């Protein structure tokens, strides 16, 4: 099943890569492990839709229709549980964004395998990005709310991926506001340090933080602008 999903994503990427230039390939990996409940799942998916349709993000995405950003979105949890929600899609106009948004809005929470296989999720992202060699820049964007506890160590995967020209950024999601007390700042600081040490790699790689799933939309919007704006502005000049 996993092999078929990867093959479908790769074939779509090959077909698009052969027909058009691409200024950036961006693969978004969303954490849907057991720690993510249905409410948090919807906040994550709906937050991504809102971020992609933010006016500033849309302006950057659509800045160069002749050399578009190509986007792929996938979910990840355990070692054998990575599913592509949006295959490689070149964003050339508002209709492309509308179709991506509709697909994400209609996605339903699956029953996923237990565990947080962050290293495997990174391997999957690097695999789907490998076919986008015609793109000027390739970026893997991993969201997560916890440390890896299954599969290969993220650091080992990162060190292999970092030998190429793929940048890996992280979006760390902290706990939602508790009923009493508040350790969210210290907790998210620890997880951010883990992502910096184990996950991110490549030129100008960074970690964005969301203080709970309620903050996911704002964090993803900032992250997309940071990932996309420099390249778009440079190309326009």
TrEMBL record:
Q: Which Pfam families match?
A: DUF1194
Q: Which residues form the signal peptide?
A: 1-20
SUPFAM superfamilies with a match to the protein in the record? vWA-like
For this UniProt record, the keywords arranged alphabetically read as follows: Signal
Q: Known InterPro entries for this protein?
A: DUF1194 (IPR010607), vWFA_dom_sf (IPR036465)
Listed name of the protein:
DUF1194 domain-containing protein
Taxonomic source organism: Roseobacter ponti
């Amino acid at each position: 099943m996993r092999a078929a999903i990867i093959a479908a994503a790769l074939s779509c990427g090959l077909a698009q890569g052969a027909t058009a230039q691409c200024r950036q390939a961006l693969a978004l990996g969303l954490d849907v492990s057991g720690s993510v409940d249905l409410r948090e799942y919807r906040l994550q998916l709906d937050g991504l839709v809102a971020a992609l349709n933010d006016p500033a993000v849309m302006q950057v995405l659509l800045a160069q229709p002749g050399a578009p950003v190509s986007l792929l979105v996938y979910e990840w949890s355990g070692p054998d549980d990575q599913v592509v929600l949006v295959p490689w899609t070149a964003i050339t106009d508002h209709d492309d964004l509308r179709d991506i948004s509709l697909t994400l809005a209609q996605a339903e929470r699956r029953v996923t395998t237990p565990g947080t296989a962050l290293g495997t999720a990174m391997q999957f992202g690097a695999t789907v990005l490998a076919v986008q060699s015609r793109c000027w820049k390739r970026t893997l964007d991993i969201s997560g709310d916890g440390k890896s506890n299954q599969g290969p160590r993220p650091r080992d995967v990162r060190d292999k991926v970092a030998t190429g020209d793929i940048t890996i950024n992280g979006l760390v999601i902290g706990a939602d506001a508790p009923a009493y007390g508040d350790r969210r700042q210290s907790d998210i600081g620890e997880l951010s340090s883990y992502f910096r040490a184990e996950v991110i790699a490549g030129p100008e790689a960074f970690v964005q933080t969301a203080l709970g799933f309620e903050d996911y939309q704002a964090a993803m919007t900032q992250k997309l602008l940071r990932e996309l704006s420099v390249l778009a502005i440079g190309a326009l000049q």
